[in-house]
Write a structure and sequence with these properties.
The protein is elongated, with a radius of gyration of 23 Å. The C terminus is likely disordered. Strands 1-2-3-5-4 form a 5-stranded mixed beta sheet, covered by helices on one side. The two termini are about 30 Å apart. α4 packs antiparallel against α6. The chain is of the alpha+beta class. It has 2 domains: about 100 residues; about 140 residues, Histidine kinase-like ATPase, C-terminal domain (Heat Shock Protein 90), CATH 3.30.565. β1, α4 and β2 form a beta-alpha-beta unit.
């Protein structure tokens, strides 16, 4: 009979392998997002600049009038502003938030400010003190999970409000991320993922991060009700019970 320690070791190895695969998939997704977003906008802006320069030189017949030039410059400006906004979003997403020096709550507050600034969303955070001392690996995992959860809610939930709750439980950290958005049929999505042998990359990444740290991951959602993400991560490996 395989011991519980062996089971735990196997799960951790499997989660590590999954993380490596997910990191590669995330890198591919980032490259595609950059190519399909800011790169395409910049190509379009460059094409308009070249066309405008040719017309100003009189190479395409009648030189453009003032309103035409103004309209073209406005379009070029809009394309470049959109590109810069997307690039800033990518930089903000992957800039390390000084995990070694900052405490978890201040890191979360910074992430929420950044999220609100980039998306126009509204967030609320409740912190039930006291919180235990949080190791760096746990900070990293919870930060990245919250980052993904906020992004998913903004893109898919159809709401501009997300709420976060942090508390201590069994010498660990409990985090909840809630929204009152459109929700989805979790059972149907799970069945489709199982049939296809896949799981949404963001969801799988969050789940594997938690499993690597011996924690518990739970996602609840239904159409018209919203979504609740619950995570428990032990800060002491001797106690891995869920909240």
């Amino acid at each position: 009979m395989i011991s519980s320690d062996s089971d735990s070791s196997f799960r951790e190895r499997q989660a590590s392998h999954n993380i490596l695969e997910i990191n590669e998939q995330e890198l591919c997704r980032i490259i595609l997002d950059i190519h399909d977003g800011p790169v395409q906008n910049m190509y379009a802006a460059l094409s308009q600049i070249n066309s405008l320069q040719a017309r100003l030189r009189g190479e395409e017949g009648r030189r453009p009038d003032g309103p035409t030039v103004s309209r073209s410059l406005s379009q070029i400006s809009g394309l470049l502003e959109s590109s810069l906004s997307e690039i800033k979003n990518f930089i903000g997403t992957f800039r390390p938030p000084e995990f070694q020096k900052r405490d978890l709550v201040s890191m979360f507050k910074g992430l929420l400010i950044q999220h609100e600034s980039l998306t126009g969303s509204h967030t609320g955070m409740e912190v039930v003190e006291p919180l235990p001392s949080v190791p760096v690996p746990v900070k990293i995992a919870l930060y990245r999970i919250l980052q993904e959860a906020l992004s998913n809610a903004y893109r898919h939930a159809g709401t501009d409000r997300q709420d976060i709750r942090l508390c201590s439980e069994n010498n660990g950290i409990c985090m909840e991320v809630l929204d009152q958005g459109t929700g989805f049929d979790l059972a149907r999505v799970s069945d489709q993922s199982e049939a296809q042998g896949t799981l949404h990359i963001g969801l799988r990444g969050m789940q594997n991060r938690v499993e690597l740290l011996g924690g518990k991951f739970r996602l609840e959602s239904s159409p018209g009700v919203g979504t609740r993400l619950s995570v428990f991560v032990p800060c002491d490996k001797r106690d891995e019970r869920s909240c």
